[in-house]
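Batch job 17 of 40 flagged for manual review because the log was empty.
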Amino acid sequence: MGGLLALITIFVTWTGSLASAQAGVMTWQLALLLLGLTPLGTVIAFHVFSVVRSRITEQVTIEAAAASIPTALAVLDAQGSVLATNREAADLDVTTLPRVPGTDPMLIAGRKYLVGRQPCSAGGVKHGEFITLDDVTILHDAIEQLRNFFELALDLMVILGPNNEIEQTNRVAAQFGLRSSVRLLDRVQPEDRAQTAAVLRGVRIDGVRDSHFEHRAVREDGAIRWLTWSCVADLPSGHVYAVGRDVTEDRQYLDALRTRTALLKEQSLFLELAYDAVIVRELGGKITFWNSGATRTYGYTREEALGVDYQALLRGTYPLPMEDIEAELASNDEWCGEVERFHKDGKKALVSCHWALQRDEQLFPVAIHEVSRDVTEQVRARQTTAHLAALVEQSQDAIISTDLSGRILAANSAAGTLLGCNAHGLVGQSVLLLVQPEHHRSLKQELESVYQEHASRQANLNLRNATGSLVPVSIALSLMPSQRGNAAGISLVLRDLTAKQARDREITRLDRLSLASQLATGIGHEVRNPLTTIRGFLQLFCLRQDLSSYTEQFKLLIGAIDRMNETLTEFLTLARNHPVELVETDVNGVILAALGLLEADARQAACVVRCELQEVPKIVASERAIRQVLVNLVRNSLEASAAGGAVVIRTALIDGHVVLSVSDQGAGIPVEVRAQIGTPFFTTKPEGTGLGLTVCHAIALQHGATLTFDNGNGGTTFYMSFPV
């Protein structure tokens, strides 16, 4: 300090000497002044040194503090020049910053700064500025990310004020009408407002930090949706931050799930109560479900079956290879078939199985469901029923089943044959329509008697077939019981009596024929011999001149005796019991040999005889018998034909039989006498004996042939069919 004062003294002295007129000579006044100023200078110098030291210390402290804070600092003078900066602001150009800073961060050198300006007039700086630049890049980016998350979130985000007014919402919340200045409770369904208000009050007032609640809200499009909220309260500010989510579909799904769960419980109960066996197994064969029906069917309890391999437990024998069954199951998602399996006690059982493939949401198979039923007894019953059905179908009798009202339920093929229609076409018709109208009442009474008396009944009726012809039948009616034992319907067994009646007529005819044979045997020869004698005398009387006046009467008597001889000849033909001589005979040759005689008879009847003969094989027969049949049939046809009519003789080979037919052009045989044709002594001719066709029938019987006739609109045709 002393050296500093000495230097100051020397400097002042030298300066004063320069200013003196003597040029370098110090005056005493000056010296006296210097001596007076030396202590004062010392004091002044010490004060100055103290002030400078304080300023320097303050400056160093400020610079150290400015260098240690992360905020960029800069001091500008009034002209905007940079006077000082700290290390953070050293690389920043603060001179280009706007004079009036905003509230938003500014982008400077690729980073975001929050700029502050304050007037500064200290430290020799007048009208300057003190600038602060806070680097808020990370904070600003985080805020932007939160803002984007807030806006782009799929959930509703809401900030509520102290009075539950909405201060800020995101886009999703706006769709529900939740916007600023709107109260949240105003958008809540009236039924849910009290509960929602209570939850918010508990969050804000009671200090509940986190809470969840649900309510219904009306969206701007009018749809009512369920919202669930999670909220937290900022107690000092009274704000509530809430995040909501539209859970309408979730609630619907849960409701559907609850409904489905309840349904599944009911179904599982039904499955448990089901009589059929219900089994679920994994694709690997492990059994996962086994109901009580499976226990009844296979004998294994649920505990014994669950977790066990399906094939090993039931030991099934399948109708197809397992590979084919699995291929069909994978293709159609189901398979049906009958499988032979073993019961727990070792007995075999035939079960009807229905498999269904279960798939997951990706359509991958995950399990196999099976419903099976023991059909062993049903199969046996089915087989028995099939056998009975075959017997019914093959029966020669017509069998018809009806309900209790008489509606036909089923009919066998014999019924269709009997009625001349398709048996299936009878189903649904009333059985009363099958009989004549006058028999409806009697058949209905028979049906009612069967039902009321539970007893079988029998009746003879005439059915009307598809052609309108009447068919005589014998009907046996009986009650059909159901499985419960009550009446299920009525069965009718119809037997065609046409053949029986024909046999009865044939027996009657044969009885008469036998009677005629006995008469012929008894009186044939006794009568014929006297007649021969009488005829001889009558012929002699015709030759006597004295009796010439009686010649016409004698001839009349001779004609009558000849007719009696013909009748006796037919009698004797019926009476011959000895076998006829059967040889190979050409039917066409017999016809041609007798044609002359037949043409003579035709000329007498003013008719013609025409032959249409086909080449036929020879038959084993009696030529004389065939000729007699031919003559009888042709004469009958000539008698039935009017003058100018034609009688046609035909031969043909039909179905292994040589058929001889004789056709006329007469009026035909009346309906009322057709059944009596061939009966001995029955005739429609005034002078007939009724033995002509009887003899023909007898000859047919001797040859194993048949004699039939067909009565058409253009006359009658008789057929004699000989086996080859």
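Reviewer: the log was empty due to a logging misconfiguration, but the result itself is present. Residues 450 and 491 are 10 Å apart (CA to CA). Unflagging and moving on to job 18.
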